[in-house]
Design brief:
Number of helices of chain B: 7
Strand content of chain B: 25-35%
Largest interface: A-B, 20 and 23 residues
Helix content of chain A: 40-55%
Number of domains of chain A: 1
Low-confidence stretches of chain A: none
Mean pLDDT of chain B: 96
Radius of gyration of chain B: 22 Å
CATH class of chain A: Mainly Alpha
Bound molecules: flavin-adenine dinucleotide, iron/sulfur cluster
Largest sheet of chain A: none
Radius of gyration of chain A: 16 Å
Order of helices and strands of chain A: HHHHHHH
Helix content of chain B: 25-40%
CATH class of the largest domain in chain B: Alpha Beta
Mean pLDDT of chain A: 91
Structural class of chain B: alpha/beta
Order of helices and strands of chain B: EHEEEHEEEEEEHEHEHEEEEEEHEH
Oligomer: heterodimer
Shape of chain A: globular
Number of strands of chain B: 19
Strand content of chain A: under 5%
Structural class of chain A: mainly alpha
Shape of chain B: elongated
Distance between the termini of chain B: 23 Å
CATH topology of chain A: Fumarate Reductase Iron-sulfur Protein, Chain B, domain 2
CATH topology of the largest domain in chain B: FAD/NAD(P)-binding domain
Distance between the termini of chain A: 43 Å
Largest sheet of chain B: 7 strands, mixed
CATH superfamily of the largest domain in chain B: FAD/NAD(P)-binding domain
CATH architecture of the largest domain in chain B: 3-Layer(bba) Sandwich
Number of strands of chain A: 0
């Protein structure tokens, strides 16, 4: 009956903040607190060379991390060229290069 | 020359304060640096949110000063000092003025858009400021590109010189969001064939009828809003401009060609105001605007008895708030003078 009904159970697509593991988020906020100053303006992404040629999005990535969504970050963060352009345009003075370094370190330490 | 009160600066704030003081029967002199009264508002065309002509508000305020205010234009205040409750003010021309009380209403300056070099103001032909757009409107001119063509697409850029630690201004200038929405409507009204895109981080429609104006811009005028801060702009050989931002709501970098770009420049503390304040030993806040004695209870008075502050010297403010502040100041000055007379 259920089989013919046409529905199946899909894994949830919403961000399950309660369940998500915020270890990396905590590590990031502790070691580079300026990440808390982000207002999501997108200047970093707009200026990022990598972001123009790949689907890499630095703003989306660090926002996802703060929400505990860390599934793809290991692969994603490899795309960054560490050029620091993003940091030059940030209106809130977020230390983005160190954000990226810290995320890398967090992945190393916390897996 | 002796006067009870000297108001410095004849913007909408100083004019309103001087008018209210003279209506209270106080002997007042109004000193203005420029050849005309009105301050920034004399350069604006129609005011948000109702689009009432700025001239109407200035004319009406001018009438309130008609009886009794001694208006001195072309009298920039060069120096000021105080001694035993008397202020001595020296304007560039005319005799020094002695007054029992001073209202400092020297206003603000516009952010110099050249400081945000990546936006191309002063470098590319078709980048203008919101203040320049007001001048085009108030002179009744048609909006064209520098090359004389009718623009087909215009980008309006929010937060230029505000909310930006790279230029040292963390504060929000408060009135530019609604100014941008108003100007978007006015562009669509003047040039129905021209698309208008606003690039914003947050839209601060804080006051009565502002949100409704935003609604009208979308519903009636088809203005588009893209949530992303401009990161840079480049010029094409045909003098159109390529804007680069992130469209944060789709999460992808976005490029767009526009024929013109309007920069919504913010407020900055005016060096003149700060200079006069320093002479009196009055300090500024971390944002550079002047500090009243207390943010809630003494927001027009200062640490110096007899010295009052009104309007945009204390930070970004719209006309309605500046006028209300000026009237409140006039009442404070009156009670101060009453107290002085009792002594
Ligand atoms: C683009 C733009 C559009 C705007 N549109 C609107 C709108 O539609 N509606 C609205 O409510 N608000 C609007 N505003 C805000 C409005 O401009 C301010 O609220 C208003 O100008 C504040 O008035 P003020 O008198 O305090 O300061 P100002 O307008 O700056 O006036 C200060 C006066 O002091 C004089 N002065 C300075 N130094 C000296 C000195 N040493 N000696 C003598 N005189 C001196 C100046 O010459 C000037 O006349 C707009 C602002 C901008 C940037
Ligand atoms: S440092 Fe990385 S994220 Fe920042 S602009 Fe360069 S490539 Fe992009
Ligand atoms: S530029 Fe700075 S404030 Fe803007 S989204 Fe990037 S990190 Fe956040
Ligand atoms: S009022 Fe709007 S445009 Fe002006 S600084 Fe504030 S958020 Fe930016």
């Amino acid at each position: 009956m259920a089989k013919n009904f046409g529905y199946k159970i899909l894994p949830g697509e919403s961000i399950d903040f309660d369940r998500n593991d915020k270890l990396i988020a905590r590590y990031l906020v502790e070691h580079e607190p300026s990440i808390n100053l982000c207002i999501g303006c997108g200047s970093c992404t707009a200026t990022c060379s990598t972001g123009h040629f790949t689907d890499f999005n630095i703003r989306r990535m660090h926002t996802f991390i703060l929400r505990g969504e860390t599934k793809h970050i290991k692969k994603e963060i490899q795309k960054c060229m560490f050029c620091g352009k993003c940091q030059l345009v940030c209106p809130r003075g977020v230390n983005l290069r160190n954000v990226i370094l810290t995320i890398n370190r967090a992945i190393e330490h916390l897996g | 020359m002796n006067r009870q009160v000297a108001v410095i600066g004849a913007g909408i704030t100083g004019m309103t304060a001087a008018g209210a003081l003279s209506e209270l029967g106080i002997d007042v002199i109004l000193l203005e640096k420029e050849e005309h009264t009105g301050g920034h508002v004399k350069n604006w065309d129609r005011l948000f949110p109702s689009r009432r002509p700025a001239k109407e508000v200035l004319d009406f305020t001018g009438k309130s000063m008609a009886t009794g205010v001694d208006i001195r234009c072309g009298s920039a205040v060069e120096s000021i000092g105080h001694n035993k409750g008397i202020f001595t003010i020296r304007p560039v021309k005319g005799e020094p003025v002695n007054a029992m009380s001073v209202v400092l209403a020297t206003g603000y300056d516009l952010f110099d858009a050249r400081k945000k070099e990546e936006y191309g103001y002063g470098i590319y032909d078709n980048v203008i400021t919101s203040a320049e757009l007001e001048t085009i409107f108030s002179e009744g001119k048609k909006l064209t590109t520098h090359q004389g063509t009718t623009p087909q697409r215009i980008g309006i850029i929010h937060c230029v010189g505000s909310r930006d630690e790279k230029v040292g201004n963390l504060y929000c200038s408060k009135v530019c969001c609604v100014t941008g929405v108003k100007q978007a409507i006015e562009i669509r009204e003047m040039l129905p064939g021209c698309e208008v895109f606003s690039f914003y981080m947050d839209l601060r429609m804080y006051d009565r009828n502002f949100e409704e104006l935003y609604f009208e811009a979308q519903q009636k005028w088809g203005v588009s809003f893209i949530r992303g801060r401009l990161s840079e702009c480049a010029e094409n050989p045909d003098h159109s401009l390529v804007l680069k931002t992130e469209d944060t709501l789709t999460g992808r970098p976005l490029k767009m060609t526009v024929d013109m770009m309007i920069l919504l420049v913010g407020f900055v503390p005016s060096p003149e105001t700060v200079r006069i304040a320093r002479m009196l030993g009055l300090s500024s806040g971390p944002d550079g605007f002047l500090l009243p004695a207390d943010e809630h209870f003494h927001d027009n008075t200062t640490t110096i008895p007899g010295l009052f502050l009104a309007g945009a010297v204390k930070g970004p403010a719209c006309i309605v708030n500046s006028m209300a502040d000026a009237r409140a100041t006039a009442m404070q000055v009156k009670s101060y003078l009453n107290g002085e007379m009792l002594k």
